[in-house]
Amino acid sequence: MFNHHRGLWGYTGSAADGAPLSIQATGMGGPSAAIVLAELIALGARRAIRVGTCGALAADLELGSLVIAREAICADGTSRALGAGERVSAHRQLTESLAVCAPSARVGAAMSVDLFYDESGRPPHGDAIAIEMEAATLFALGAASAIQVACVLTVSDVFNARAQRTRIDDHALLAAAEQMGRAAIAALGTAPA
Catalytic annotation on 157? Predict the structure, then answer.
């Protein structure tokens, strides 16, 4: 462990191939994620993959399914403050490497929002297959800083026709997190720098 500022734990060491690897919590939402990624960039980070959770918007996604966000619909304030328009793309090559390393994952658009609990129901989502809170900010900051940023998520929440939420259990979440971590580390090792 090399960091625990703001309660956000960070670890650094080496991947199996000996390449340097840091794993850093960002907290929830775009503002916190932007601070953390900006500080990592200042420390020399040149590639980052968000590993996190999302809610399913596509009806065929089940709890524990993996999603790779190729782009984010910017329905949040932080990505917009960073200059993003309606959508912001993940780094293409890093995302392609991530898809190869997680072949069961569904690749599509994610909608980034500011509210975790939105009592008004699910927002309109167009072609978004998942909803989450950080990808648009991280993609926008990555593009502005000329670093590679990608995103892999596991479906932690599904919604029925009345927008009632069902959550993933702890065991399934841990298994999905391990699967995402392995895919992210492999993608970082195979994507062109």
Answer: yes
Catalytic member of 114, 127, 157, 169: 157
φ and ψ at residue 134, rounded to 5 degrees: -125, -25
At 178, is the pLDDT very low, low, confident or very high (cuts 50, 70, 90)?
Answer: very high
Number of domains in the chain: 1
CB distance 49 to 134 below 8 Å: no
Q: What's the confidence (pLDDT) of residue 165?
A: 86
Average pLDDT over residues 67-94: 96
Residue 16: pLDDT band by 50, 70, 90 thresholds? confident
> Which range, 19-28, 125-134, 178-187, has the best average confidence (pLDDT)?
178-187
Record the tokens describing residue 68, joined without a space.
Answer: 């790779």
Q: In this structure, what DSSP letter does residue 84 have?
A: -
32 CB-near residues (< 8 Å, 6+ apart): 8, 26
Domain of 102, in residue numbers: 47-190
CA torsion angle for 149, 9, 32, 82 (degrees, to 10)? -30
Query: 3 is written with which tokens?
Result: 């960091």
Q: Per the domain annotation, does 10 fall within a domain?
A: no
